[in-house]
Specification:
Blueprint (H helix, E strand, L loop, with lengths): L11 E7 L7 H11 L4 E4 L1 H6 L1 H9 L3 E4 L12 H19 L5 E2 L8 H9 L3 E2 L4 E2 L8 H8 L7 E5 L3 H16 L3 E2 L1 E2 L6 E2 L6
Parallel strand pairs: 1-2, 1-7, 1-8, 2-3, 4-5, 6-7
Antiparallel strand pairs: 9-10
Helix pairs in contact: 1-7, 3-4, 4-5, 6-7
């Protein structure tokens, strides 16, 4: 499992959005991120990608990194290895069909993981990524609370957010303004360490 070391001094943080693509919100989220001039990592649910492949393509076209968040967003640690593998492999295929790229990062739903799931992810070429700061947007947090949570991000840190909440979209400009004021920039997640690093130009 990849842990995030919030002390990593590289000047970059990772903005991440789980559970998309969402027909009701993904377009507005991408517009907000583009307007703020930042890239983020989208941990997509495979069945959502299958249902709305154009939105996954839009994520990539907007410069986002598209990653794996399982097929059904279930409690994967309660499954056997074969079903775990299916959850991740089906999502890999759906994202590849929709975007032309194969995810290299995986976030387990609910942050629930174990050795078996980690082995399955690794076998599919995926690095497991959790987070260092949870905005609680999934728990009804408003924009101000989301922005306050983001303000605690440290270099190398990973911020947990979700594609599906207007408050999260509304928080984007303030989050980016705060990061800029603190000399931090939005970056990609390293497949080697799970920490935020400078973008390397890869899609």
């Amino acid at each position: 499992m990849t842990h995030v070391d919030s002390r990593a001094g590289n000047g970059y943080v990772a903005l991440t959005y789980d559970d998309g693509p969402n027909p009701a919100t993904t377009g507005a989220l991408l517009d907000a991120l583009r307007s703020a001039g930042v890239r983020a990592t989208c941990f997509n649910v495979g069945r959502h990608v299958q249902a709305a492949p154009a939105l996954a393509r839009a994520q990539r076209a907007a410069g986002m990194w598209v990653a794996n968040h399982s097929w059904t967003h279930g409690h994967l640690t309660r499954l056997g290895t074969a079903r775990m593998t299916s959850e991740l492999a089906r999502t890999q295929r759906a994202v590849r069909r929709a975007t032309g790229t194969t995810p290299r990062l995986f976030r387990p739903p609910y942050g629930e993981t174990n050795a078996a799931l980690q082995a399955v992810a690794s076998g599919l070429g995926l690095t497991e990524v959790l987070w260092s700061v949870d905005t609680q947007d999934w728990n009804g947090a408003g924009t101000d609370r989301i922005v306050r949570a983001a303000s605690t991000l440290q270099p190398g840190g990973v911020l947990l957010m979700h594609d599906g909440h207007q408050a999260t979209i509304d928080a984007v400009p303030q989050i980016v303004a705060d990061l800029t004021a603190r000399g931090l920039r939005a970056g990609m997640i390293s497949t080697a360490t799970g920490r935020a690093v400078a973008p390397d130009g890869s899609p």
